[in-house]
Amino acid sequence: RSSWLLLAPLLTPPVPVITAPPCSLCPEGAHRFQWIRNLVPEFGISSSHVKVLSSPAEFYELLKVQIKAAKQRVVMASLYLGTGVLEQELVYCLEETLEKSLQAEGSPDLRVSILLDYTRGSRGRKNSRTMLIPLLQRFPEQVRVSLFHTPNLRGLLRLLIPERFNETIGLQHIKVYLFDDNVILSGANLSDLYFTNRQDRYVLLRDSPEIADFFTELVDAIGDVSLQLQQDDTVQMMEGMVHPYQGDKVAYCEIANQRVMEVINSARTRQELLHEKTFHSSQPGSSLLSQQGSQASGSLKPEPDTWIYPLIQMKPFGIQIDEMVTETLLTEAERDARIYLTTGYFNLTQAYMDLILGTRAEYRILLASPEVNGFFGAKGVAGAIPAAYVYIEQQFYSEVCCLQQQERVQLQEYSRAGWTFHAKGLWLYLAGSDLPCLTLIGSPNFGYRSVHRDLEAQVAIVTENKALQQQLHQEQEQLYLCSGVVSTSTFEQPSRYVKLWVKLVTPFIKNFF
User: Fold this and answer.
1) Any idea where the PLD phosphodiesterase domain is (predicted)?
2) Alpha-carbon gap, residue 315 to 233, rounded angstroms
């Protein structure tokens, strides 16, 4: 019965593929990527505010430290919150910080907003909801828990698909963790594996109020169109809001689109005005006295050498900014440029595969070996998913060989005993450079799900600063160090054997995992 139901998602109508409009990169310098600000807000910051983390333990400790230090806001968006001891410790940290804010003089300032996925966060008797209800009961005026439910899971489909399999239709997949004006972007969820032995990527943007405001507003916008968790473990929509699976789907998606695009466009307008103001104030002859006064008072910010661009992908709502930017980066990458691309789930869209195979840059693609795939050893049908990924990898490698592109496009498999692999993103090295000037980091996996089904967000970090470029280079090297190059002999190993039924089923279900 479950195997048959796994194919139930095929009943949903296909999403039309929309290609990105052509866009040319500016020719000069590391900051040739200013065209991105035509689509999203551009945040100029000092590279000294950016810190690249390397380990799950470092990520977990930072989360606890930041929660305890928060005074005004804690905003956390994730797929789910786990139910183990380490996750409970995070909840205790939130409770302690909220308690302190209650005891402070005057009305408590601290607000906690948590956005999770409804289906993943409701899985099992003990789940993300039951972990957070005590906070809602103790601090009803300060805590908000929003559970996003995809509008594509509705009607008969919603009744037929069992728990776990219902997550294949669409999820809230954004991972952003912010505390006052400090923002952590990652692909990691709030679960013990991601705090111990599941390798991901993490970057901290310190003292970045404009970026923190943007992601707060983004999470609020998605929260407004999500189900609100109540103290008795029920859920309800905000008053006057269209229901995601009981209401009109088109009306719901239009409202969601308006909410999210309003956040993007208003932030973009704010940043453009700020950029113009900064540009004019830095021109010769412009209010020299006021500039000297600002310097004397220490309020003049250092000239930015790093730029942050938030890239949002929410195809259910008709928002495809991340897809457009990623396709343009792959299209415009010049000969002798190098792109290091990594994904825990190698299942690239056809558009991304065509661009990699048809453009001039060198590619080093890092993916999970079957043993470090998150589904390795899973029970039932899910246990065959690593084999499906091997089959997809083998098909792509065969195409690379057929086109005689093995030197230009190289696959590498991450392998590390006792660990699983979940890192995603890319690093772009311009021709002739030993250091990357751009990285993408966040939640997307470059697959069909990321592009068409889920809510995703990542940032493009562009920097001219050599020290930050070195940090990003070291991060890339550290990940690739645990890998081996894929060759024809890789697929002759017994662990790469793919059963016939997996080969037959994979083309039909590859868009759902």
Assistant:
1) 168-194
2) 30
